[in-house]
């Protein structure tokens, strides 16, 4: 099929490259000219495993193309996806202006056969609203607007897109549903469940699913706190919980609070939808506050471990909001590092992929390419991101580089016995204190 994707960010670029890999002809359009120029010269603007090869392969065989302009180049498309950003507004609801602008831009150029598909995560009722907008601009009712929310995760975006748990097709008319079913036929043949429903259901499925996953994280973080009080081990508790197939093991690892481009924004939007319909989502409202408080509390804990923070030196290992991405949006580091600096601490940092993004957001931090150099004469080391490299740290080298002895592991990557055997004081989350 001929497909156009508006927005070449994490979701748009991954969707475009994967659909091309499946044999469709895809044109990705982004208003950011520098981004498009970089992609064309095979330098991807985001770090995402496997994506670079996929883009290169499909560029080479002419199934994938890129442009920064919308015009007659979209008029033969059967499906036009909107995959632009939907950031949070101050009131928690989302800013729909990027989706609106993209819809206004495509509307005059759509062919009669086209359906617009909203891939961005949008509030309940958006597909209907965007359809009315397009009808007003074009002066005809031919174009349908469907909803096809995306569930991929940064860090495993290509794998998630290619092996989805399910595909949700929200369509209020048969024509757009038929087109989307055809687009994803290869998945359905492989046995991937394809849920066909209305646009408003599809929009709410995305938010309810993300809110539920965020609740799982918030829940295990509170269980971890309880384990600390009770001198229990959250690793064993979460394993015992997760082996119950009704619960499952995913999203049951405690950490420094969820971050990233989705959970914080999507939980706020879900709560805003609840308020709008007079059905407050109190569980999620509480979670949002707790998650922010957790980041502040964990910063305070670092300061307590330092004793006298003024003039202290702390090394942060990992600033990205999670491993395998360079995305810094709402990362725990953005809440924790400024609190340390405010208390007079010198902060040094290392991240295998997020250094460039993070250094712009945390300008007062000293950056290093090597975790051991970053740890030179540090009083404390804090692991904030679960990069595999940090699991395999050479603890002798680390201990030798430091002037203090405190290793704070907010991802529970290491084992207490190992760390203590190297003469270090170990602080982790929800596990019994090292003796
Ligand atoms: P992003 O910020 O990485 O990319 C958005 C892109 O859209 C940018 O490159 C921007 O230049 C472009 N853009 C904005 N307005 C445009 C316009 N009018 N015309 C053309 N291009 C335009 O965002 P993302 O992370 O890819 O997220 C996109 C949407 O998908 C959001 O609604 C997000 O909530 C949702 N989503 C994201 C993820 C994720 O893991 N990132 C997962 C599922 C869903």
- Share of residues in strands: 5-15%
Radius of gyration of CA atoms, rounded to a whole number: 23 Å
**Regarding CATH, which class of the largest domain?**
Alpha Beta
Q: Main beta sheet, described?
A: 6 strands, parallel
The number of helical segments is 18
Oligomer designation: single chain
At CATH's second level, what is the architecture of the largest domain? Answer: 3-Layer(aba) Sandwich
Termini gap: 63 Å
**Which superfamily, in CATH terms, is the homologous superfamily of the largest domain?**
NAD(P)-binding Rossmann-like Domain
* DSSP E strands, number: 14
Q: Residue-averaged pLDDT, rounded?
A: 97
> In percent, how helical is the residue content?
40-55%
CATH topology of the largest domain: Rossmann fold
In the predicted model, the low-confidence regions spanning at least 5 consecutive residues are none
What count of structural domains? 2
Ligands (ions, cofactors included): nicotinamide-adenine-dinucleotide
Shape category: globular
Structural category: alpha/beta
Strand order of the biggest β-sheet: 3-2-1-4-5-6
Give a topology summary:
Blueprint: E1 2-6, H1 10-21, E2 25-29, H2 33-40, H3 51-60, E3 64-67, E4 79-82, H4 97-106, E5 115-118, H5 126-138, E6 144-147, H6 157-162, E7 167-170, H7 174-183, H8 185-189, E8 194-197, H9 199-230, H10 234-242, H11 263-276, H12 282-306, E9 313-317, H13 332-342, E10 346-350, H14 355-361, E11 366-367, H15 371-374, E12 380-383, H16 388-391, H17 395-401, E13 406-409, H18 416-421, E14 425-428
Parallel strand pairs: 1-2, 1-4, 2-3, 4-5, 5-6, 7-8, 9-10, 9-12, 10-11, 12-13, 13-14
Helix pairs in contact: 1-3, 4-5, 9-11, 9-12, 11-12, 12-13
Keywords: NAD, Oxidoreductase
Catalytic activity: UDP-alpha-D-glucose + 2 NAD(+) + H2O = UDP-alpha-D-glucuronate + 2 NADH + 3 H(+)
EC number: 1.1.1.22
């Amino acid at each position: 099929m001929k497909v156009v994707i508006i927005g070449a960010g994490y979701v748009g670029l991954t969707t475009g490259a994967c659909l091309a890999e499946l044999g469709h002809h895809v044109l990705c359009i982004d208003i950011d000219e520098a981004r498009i120029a970089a992609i064309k010269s095979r330098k991807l603007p985001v770090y995402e495993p496997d994506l670079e090869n996929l883009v290169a392969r499909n560029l080479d065989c002419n199934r994938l193309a890129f442009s920064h302009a919308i015009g007659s180049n979209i008029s033969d498309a059967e499906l036009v996806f909107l995959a632009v950003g939907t950031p949070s507004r101050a009131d928690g609801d989302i800013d729909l202006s990027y989706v609106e602008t993209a819809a206004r831009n495509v509307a005059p150029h759509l062919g009669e056969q086209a359906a617009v598909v909203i891939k961005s995560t949008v509030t309940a009722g958006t597909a209907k609203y965007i359809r009315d907008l397009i009808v007003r601009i074009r002066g005809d009712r031919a174009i349908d607007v469907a909803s096809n929310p995306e569930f991929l995760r940064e860090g495993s975006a290509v794998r998630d897109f290619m092996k989805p748990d399910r595909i949700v097709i929200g369509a209020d008319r048969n024509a757009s549903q038929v087109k989307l079913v055809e687009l994803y036929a290869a998945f359905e043949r492989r046995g991937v469940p394809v849920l066909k429903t209305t646009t408003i259901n599809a929009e709410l499925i995305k938010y309810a699913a993300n809110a539920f996953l965020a609740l799982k994280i918030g829940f295990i973080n509170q269980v971890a706190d309880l384990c600390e009080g009770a001198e229990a081990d959250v690793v064993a508790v979460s394993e015992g919980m997760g082996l119950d197939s009704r619960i499952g093991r995913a999203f049951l690892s405690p950490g420094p609070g969820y971050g990233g481009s989705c959970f914080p924004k999507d939980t706020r939007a879900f709560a805003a939808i609840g308020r709008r319909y007079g059905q407050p989502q109190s569980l999620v409202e509480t979670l949002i506050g707790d998650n922010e408080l957790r980041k502040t509390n964990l910063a305070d804990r670092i300061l307590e471990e330092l004793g006298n923070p003024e003039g202290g030196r702390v090394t942060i290992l990992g600033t990205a909001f999670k491993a395998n991405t360079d995305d810094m949006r709402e990362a725990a580091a953005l809440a924790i590092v400024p609190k340390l600096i405010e208390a007079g601490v010198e902060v040094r940092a290392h991240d295998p992929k997020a250094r460039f993004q993070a250094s712009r957001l945390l300008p007062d931090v000293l950056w290093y390419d090597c975790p051991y150099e970053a740890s030179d004469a540090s009083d404390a080391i804090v692991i904030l991101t679960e990069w595999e490299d940090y699991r395999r740290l050479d603890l002798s080298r680390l201990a030798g580089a430091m002037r203090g002895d405190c290793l704070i592991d907010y991802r529970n990557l290491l084992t207490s016995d190992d760390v203590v055997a190297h003469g270090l004081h170990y602080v982790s989350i929800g596990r019994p204190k090292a003796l």
